[in-house]
Structure formats: structure tokens, C-alpha cells
Amino acid sequence: MLSPGNQSRANRGSDWRGIARTFVVEVLVLLALAGAFVGYLNWSSNKAFEEFMSASEPSPAYAGHQPPSAVPIQQVKAKAPCQPRV
Fold first, then answer.
1. CA 16, 20, 26: angle at the middle one, nearest 5?
2. Collapsing DSSP states into helix, strand and coil, what is residue 76?
3. 50 inside domain
4. Containing domain of residue 50, as a range?
5. Is 71 within a domain?
6. Residue in 22, 2, 21 with CA at minimum distance from that of residue 12
7. 6-44 pLDDT tens trace
8. Model pTM greater than 0.85?
């Protein structure tokens, strides 16, 4: 193995083509990840919105029939109005 001091002048320079290729690959990977992330956010927000909208609609089981309450509903007696103190 050669020590760094024995390398020829041609091998000492940076491999600019290799650096450029690495940079391009990194940018492409970051763009692909960003696209996948944005696609996932759109998909999940659409699903959440659909779920939210379906929650506001009555379900088909309860559309025409409400089950009777287990506890009977009673009228609240009206309170007598308060008499002011003199």
C-alpha cells in the first residue's frame, strides 16, 4: 500500500465527476422521498376528510328508526319564579 506522500500528482486531485454523480443521486433520492411524503399526506388527509364527512351522516341502521331509550324521558317541572326579598 502506498503512503499518501508517494501518490502521483494525477491521483491527488478530487474526482469531480464522482462528486457530481453522488450529488445528483442524493438530490434524486431526496426528491423521491419528498414526493412520497407529499403523496402520503394527500392520501391520509383525503381519508381523514372522508371519515369526517361520513361521521356526520346518519348510519343506514339508524336512518329511519331510533331505538327506544332505556330510561324513560320525564318532563322537568317548572320552578316557581323567585320572589324578591324586601
1. 145
2. coil
3. yes
4. 29-58
5. no
6. 2
7. 555 556 678 999 999 999 999 999 999 999 999 999 999
8. no
Q: What is the mean pLDDT of residues 68-72?
A: 65
Tell me the C-alpha to C-alpha distance, in Å, between residue 11 and each of 14, 16, 19.
8, 12, 15
Cβ neighbours of residue 23 under 8 Å, at least 6 residues apart?
none
Identity at 35, one-letter amino acid code: G
Cell of 76: 322537568
Number of domains in the chain: 1
Which residue reads 465527476 in cell numbers? 17
Is 67 among the domain residues? no
- In the numeric block, the cell 464522482 is attached to 18
**CB neighbours of 50 closer than 8 A, spacing ≥ 6?**
none
Report the Cα–Cα distance between both ends of the chain, in Å, rounded: 110
